[in-house]
Each structure stands twice: as C-alpha cells, then as structure tokens.
Design a protein that fits this description.
Elements lengths: L2 H14 L5 H20 L10 H13 L9 H20 L26 H9 L9 H16 L3 H5 L3 H4 L5 E5 L5 E5 L2 H13 L1 H4 L18 H15 L7 H14 L4 H8 L4 H4 L1 H17 L4
Antiparallel strand pairs: 1-2
InterPro entries: CB, DNA_brk_join_enz, Integrase-like_cat_sf, Integrase_catalytic, Integrase_recombinase_N, Integrase_SAM-like_N, Recomb_XerD, Tyrosine_recombinase_XerC/XerD
Main location: cytoplasm
Subcellular location: Cytoplasm
C-alpha cells in the first residue's frame, strides 16, 4: 500500500478512534510526514517493500543529517522510530501488511554524556569564596558547610538536605546517608567538611533555628533549606569565585568521584561511596580520568 495513503488513514484513526490531543496529533503528523518523505525520496511507493534495513538507514539519516538537515538527538530519532513503528503496526492490523518489519529495529543508543566537573583548584576557589572567619554571617557559615559537605561526601543534594541533627550528632568522621530507594550507605566526612559543619552548628544554626525543625540545614525563615535555595547558594559562590562554567550541586558530586579516581581510588570503592547500584554507572567517571591522563601525556611525552 502507498505509505502516504496509509499514513493519512492512520492519523484519522488516531484522531477519531484513539482521541489523541491536537498537539499530539501535530507531533505524529510531523514525524510521519518526515518518514513518508524519506521513503518517497528513496523511490519506495509500497510500504510492503520496506525492510528493517531501510528503517535502520532512515534512523541513521536522522541522526547524521541528510541533504543539509539538522541531525537529530538520539531521543528525537527514537521518537521518530516509534511513529514509524506505529504506522507499520497499523498496516498489519488493517491487513495491508503481512509482516511488521519495524518491530525488528532497535532505537538509537543515546550514548554516554560525560558529566561536567570542576578541577581541584576550581573547587578550592569555590569553597573559599564563602567566608568562615569572624566576619562571616550565619548564612555564610551555613553555605560553607553545605558546599563542603556536598564535595566532601559526594552525596546528592537531596541526601544532604535530608540530613537531620541526629544524623550528624557524634558522627566521628562517618555519616550514614539515606540514598535512593531508602538504601543507607556509610561515607567518610573529611576534616574540612567536619570543621565547616562544626562552625555552622555552633555559630550559625542556633541563630537560624528558633523553631522546632530537626533539619540540619535551615533557611532564614527557620524552615528546612530547599533545593532551589541550595542551588542559589552554589551559583552565588561560583560567581564570587569567578567560575564561568555552568554548574549545579551535582557538579560537586561528579567532581568528587573524578578526583577520587584520579587520586588512585578504585572504581568499586567509588561505587560504594556514591551509592550506585551498578558499577557500570560509576565507570563513566573513568572516561573523564582517562581523558585527563591523555591530555597530560600529550603535553608531556616527547613522542606524543
């Protein structure tokens, strides 16, 4: 059957029988038009003649760009494949096609995105941009403790903001972190983070806390510090430090892992410290470290 004819019938079915919204139908029409146009350019006027290889070539063209078209991200190409699959599946259901060749085609892999990190010097500049001396305000002491703990433990921002006073009482250099799925893990609390935490608990939190909240980190309204406020703490510190990179609280977690691996820690240990259920998740940081090693080697080796 002609692809364009079947596509119009399918879109009508989606609108009338399935009751899809106008916006969803618009997206479907865009993707199905792109697929039908690609088939027509390839000289295909019968959907029954399309093979799994044709669909794979279609997705490849979407990913790489064709005839000057903008290359699509894996997620966008994956959505385009879902629509093409839907057309083929509809053709089989209507008796127009004998085989659903699209079912054999896998969506494109999104690939791994290397996390943004700060260098050790940049982390130091970031942390030292928040004062802790006699002139420091209670908010300064809170902010410094927050940032020191994020980098010093590698914990997620939600995990740090979820800590209570009981969690840090008599910590003895060790914290129990409540991670994803309610899983607990033990992480060391470094001397710098412990020092900043103590300064906050003694000189700052009593000023901020006049209510009964047990949250460790409080805002100026005596409530638990929010994620949005924590994000702003980091942005302010980065601006003071002159760091122009786009960073978030998760950047400190990425930097923590990368610096540990660069310093000689093994992947399994870093996996436990980060609370990753699979070592595969942690191994992305080994690519960052390898890139750093390669850069140093290229600069230093006479035969590079």
């Amino acid at each position: 059957m002609n692809p364009r004819t079947l596509a119009e019938t399918w879109l009508e079915h989606l609108a009338v029988e399935r009751g899809l919204s106008e916006n969803t139908l618009k997206n479907y029409r865009r993707d199905i038009e792109r697929y039908v146009h690609w088939l027509e350019e390839a000289g295909t006027d019968d959907l029954a003649a399309v093979t799994a290889g044709d669909l794979e070539a279609y997705i490849t063209d979407l990913r790489t760009g064709r005839h000057g078209a903008r290359p699509l991200a894996a997620s966008s190409a994956g959505r385009a494949l879902v629509v093409a699959r839907g057309l083929h599946r509809f053709g089989v259901a209507e008796g127009e096609l004998d085989v659903d060749v699209a079912a054999e085609v896998s969506p494109p892999s999104p690939g791994r995105v290397l996390p943004d990190t700060l260098s050790i010097d940049e982390v130091s500049q970031l942390l030292e941009a928040v004062p802790v001396g006699e002139a420091a305000t209670p908010v300064d002491l809170r902010d410094r403790a927050l940032l020191e703990m994020l980098y010093g433990t590698g914990a997620r921002i939600s995990e740090v903001l979820g800590l209570t006073l009981d969690d840090v009482a008599d910590h003895d250099g060790i914290l129990r972190i409540q991670g994803k799925g309610g899983k607990q893990r033990i992480v060391p609390l470094g001397s710098k983070a412990a020092e900043a935490l103590q300064g906050y608990l003694v000189r700052s939190r009593p000023v901020l806390a006049t209510g009964g909240s047990h949250a460790l980190f409080l805002n100026t309204r005596r409530n638990a510090l929010s994620r949005q406020s924590a994000w702003q703490v980091l942005q302010t510190a980065a601006q003071r430090a002159g760091i122009e990179k786009s960073i978030s609280p998760h950047t400190l977690r990425h930097s923590y892992a990368t610096h540990l691996l660069a310093g000689g820690a093994d992947v399994r240990t870093v996996q436990e410290l980060l609370g990753h259920s699979s070592v595969t998740t942690t191994q992305i940081y080994t690519h960052v470290t390898a890139d750093n090693l390669r850069e140093v080697w290229q600069q230093a080796h006479p035969r590079a």
